[in-house]
Amino acid sequence: MKRNDAMSKENADVWITGIGLLSSLGEGTNTHWAAMSGTAGSTVTPVLDEENYAPYPVHPLVEVDYATQIQKRGDLRQMEPWQRIGTYTAGLALADAGLAGDFEALDRMDMIVAAGSGERDAAMDQKVLESTSGESANKGHSNEILKSELRPTLFLAQLSNLLAGNISIVHKVTGSSRTYMGEELAGLASIENAYNRISSGQSDLMLIGGANNAERKDSLLIFEMGQNLWGEEFKSIWERAEAGGGLVQGSVGAFLVLESADYARARGAKAYAKLSGISSDRCRRDDGQAKDSLDSQFDKLSATMEKGDLGILSGASGTKQATAEELAFIQGLGNKGFTPIARAYGSMMGHSFEAQMPVGLALAAISLSKGEYLEPLDGSGVEASADKAPEQIMVTSVGHWRGEGLALLTSLDSKEAK
């Protein structure tokens, strides 16, 4: 299919055909599903580091051989961990979709990356602070440090669009590229933009996702200054919110390949699930506003949904107000004719900000493709067992500070997949 053919189509179905996942639980779709569903005799237990950043627990990244996806040492050497996580995971998604090395497809593939402002150079921060404090303060010396240490790609922190650039260089994804910044809402916006572009016929093949490195003292400091971190013995999302709230960061990479159904069929691709709708909003977070935002968005998306069982994969952070209002929204779905079956996947993988919504879509797509569902991930009573796997799953995103959104995924029947 030529690009011009894709441009002429409207209201195209959007399929998820490739998934790349990397976290504390391991890498790949099967590893994550086994860890979170209790299959193959595994125990549903999070992987934690409660010592190195005490009193703040984090979900540390599994050990990774980055060279399997980033083969040039020079490319690998100039990336900080968050870029390695993202570039590696993007490679997993491309391979999963059967597109790794397909240069004709990669040349037309568009890319949207959700990323933060990168990692700070802690050693240089320390030099600057030491030169401007105490009896030996020398502001002139700090200027010399900045002149010698700053680089075009480093302004005391790496630029967010470097991740997209490295994915393009390493994996040869050379269509259009854009980067969203802004924590959870950036991940949501990347998916919403991709969905709108494919469904309207502006694109037919896209790579989207994000990455987060939780094992950073500078990041922990920033979020603790906003009183957002959980600094006690680890608890699950819903239990944490009841005890005052707080988020636990997770090192995560999550990338997805999205395609129009026609393009996927033409190349013989197998899809995990259909992305049937997505919406986003942003409120001031006065009491009740986040719940009202979710209710309003749900009413629009649910017009085409069948009432009854509804899987809810919650991207809740664990922060008190945001999580409480999201839970109130979920529990209120019974009044709309739906039976919510909630799972807060952050209890297992941690909170990954820009990558949080892509993670939820990935897990929902895997669930629908397998015809199975996640086991309850905490003991608070919020997450009830499911008698059968739902055929429609809503992924929620309520940013710890701003941004609310919903994405609806549905299973593909045999007729659609042909």
Describe the protein's architecture and organization.
The protein has 17 helices and eleven strands. 38% of the residues lie in helices and 18% in strands. Residues 1-8 have low confidence and may be disordered. It has helices at 3-8, 29-37, 73-77, 81-96, 103-108, 122-131, 139-149, 162-171, 183-199, 217-225, 237-242, 261-266, 289-301, 320-331, 346-349, 356-370, 414-417, and strands spanning 14-23, 26-27, 110-114, 177-180, 205-212, 252-260, 273-281, 308-314, 338-344, 392-398, 404-410. A hairpin with a 2-residue loop joins strand 1 and strand 2. Strands 1, 2, 3, 4, 5, 6, 7, 8, 9, 10 and 11 form an eleven-stranded mixed sheet that branches. Helix 13 packs parallel to helix 14.
Write the SSE topology.
Blueprint: H1 3-8, E1 14-23, E2 26-27, H2 29-37, H3 73-77, H4 81-96, H5 103-108, E3 110-114, H6 122-131, H7 139-149, H8 162-171, E4 177-180, H9 183-199, E5 205-212, H10 217-225, H11 237-242, E6 252-260, H12 261-266, E7 273-281, H13 289-301, E8 308-314, H14 320-331, E9 338-344, H15 346-349, H16 356-370, E10 392-398, E11 404-410, H17 414-417
Task: State the CATH superfamily name of the largest domain.
Answer: Thiolase/Chalcone synthase
Helix content: 25-40%
Low-confidence stretches: 1-8
Q: First CA to last CA: what distance?
A: 17 Å
Share of β-strand residues: 15-25%
Computed Rg: 21 Å
Quaternary form: single chain
Strands, count: 11
CATH class of the largest domain: Alpha Beta
Give me the CATH architecture of the largest domain, please. 3-Layer(aba) Sandwich
Which outline best applies?
Answer: globular
Count of alpha/pi helices:
17
Total tally of structural domains:
2
CATH topology of the largest domain: Peroxisomal Thiolase, Chain A, domain 1
Main beta sheet, described? 11 strands, mixed
Order of helices and strands: HEEHHHHEHHHEHEHHEHEHEHEHHEEH
What is the arithmetic mean of pLDDT? 91
Protein structure class: alpha/beta
